[in-house]
Amino acid sequence: MSKKIERLSPEKGKVTNKDKAQIVHELRRKYKVNELVKMAGIPRSTYYYYTKSQSKLDKYATIRPVMKQIFTDNKGRYGYRRVTAKLKKQGMVINHKTVMRLMKESNLHCFVRIKKYNSYRGDVGKVAPNLLNREFQAAKPNEKWVTDITEFHLYGQKIYLSPILDLYNGEIISYDISNHPRFSQVMVMLDRAFKKIPDNTGS
Prior knowledge:
- By secondary structure, this protein is α+β, with helices and mostly antiparallel strands.
- The chain has helices at 3-7, 17-27, 33-40, 44-59, 63-73, 80-89, 96-105, 183-195, and strands at residues 118-119, 145-147, 150-154, 157-166, 172-178.
- The chain has three domains: 3-59, no CATH class; 63-105, no CATH class; 118-195, no CATH class.
- It is elongated and about 90 Å long.
């Protein structure tokens, strides 16, 4: 009896089911699988589960290094969709969900750097009077609103956020997001805010 078969014996110390399944797999061409799993003391399902998982690993063995190289060449900025597109260009047809899973298994996480935002100043025109005079507290809802247009740099594009904040409780009354800072953006934001005001509320 070969040494591999002897290793199947429980008397040889602690051998995991995975080890036993691997030995059965190596000896399957010389001996019947039914006899080997019986000798190993594992169900046939355990053996087939192991072989199936091994075949999955082998299935993507050629794709994994190419996937990692694409990710590295692009300095970690490519997510699974762009990596999938690059793989297809190289003749490797694979589902994007599979690429997502393989990237997670390989610990390849896309990091997109979001730049710090700054308040958009735009062209300085007529300066409005300072009605608040730094009194940023309100006695009732809708008494004092403040707003500002904030510029974000996100995924290589500029995004402009225009919100209205109620100083009474810090609630965002309304907001609008646009690719360009326009006066119409402010009007849309105000229209949405006014529609939320109950009758006889505010000052």
